[in-house]
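User: Can you recover a sequence for this backbone? Please restate the input before giving your answer.

Assistant: Of course. Working from this structure:
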């Protein structure tokens, strides 16, 4: 049992060290630019596929708790994008076909697009008006894009916390916007 506990703790340390290193390498200016774009947007749209899509959907929930107008791309109730809107498009590779197609459609509609990716020269990053690079596309002890997805989730939670403080939104106000039909 001791060996299993040691292995668990060692792996936790390795994974959290990877995530910490990825987040430490994020450009704070790109984070601030995302926050400004969110605050300036009439509507924020969250786009992504797979686990990257789950991370940005979680962020959409927090933006809703903060009182920001937000929609998830692909939901039947999502309205059309307009020129004053922001699309946050998340893809580690920056090559996910559906996410790139969403970004291109948003650009045609006149909306701004922020690409959140590990690859700053990817098709998604090139299509976007801004980018936020999470340098987590290289070597990891974890399978696939796990490191990127974990870092994205934590980055989005930090952005939500910064927006909460900046906007002066209380925990009580956020709780009042929390789903009650669960």
């Amino acid at each position: 049992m001791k060996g299993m506990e040691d292995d668990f703790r060692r792996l936790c340390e390795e994974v959290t060290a990877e995530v910490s290193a990825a987040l430490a390498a994020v450009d704070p200016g790109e984070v601030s630019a995302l926050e400004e774009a969110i605050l300036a947007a009439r509507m924020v749209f969250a786009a992504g596929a797979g686990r990257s899509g789950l991370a940005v959907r979680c962020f959409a929930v927090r933006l809703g708790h903060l009182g920001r107008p937000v929609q998830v791309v692909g939901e039947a109730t999502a309205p059309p994008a307009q020129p004053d809107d922001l699309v946050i498009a998340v893809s580690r590779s920056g090559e996910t076909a559906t996410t790139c197609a969403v970004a291109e459609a948003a650009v045609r509609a006149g909306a701004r697009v922020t690409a959140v990716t590990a690859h700053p020269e990817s098709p998604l990053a090139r299509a976007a008006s801004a980018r936020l690079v999470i340098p987590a596309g290289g070597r990891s002890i974890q399978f696939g894009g796990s490191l990127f997805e974990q870092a994205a989730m934590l980055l989005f939670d930090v952005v939500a916390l910064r927006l909460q403080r900046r906007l002066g939104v209380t925990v009580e106000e956020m709780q009042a916007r929390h789903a009650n039909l669960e």
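That completes the design. The first strand starts at residue 44 and ends at 48.
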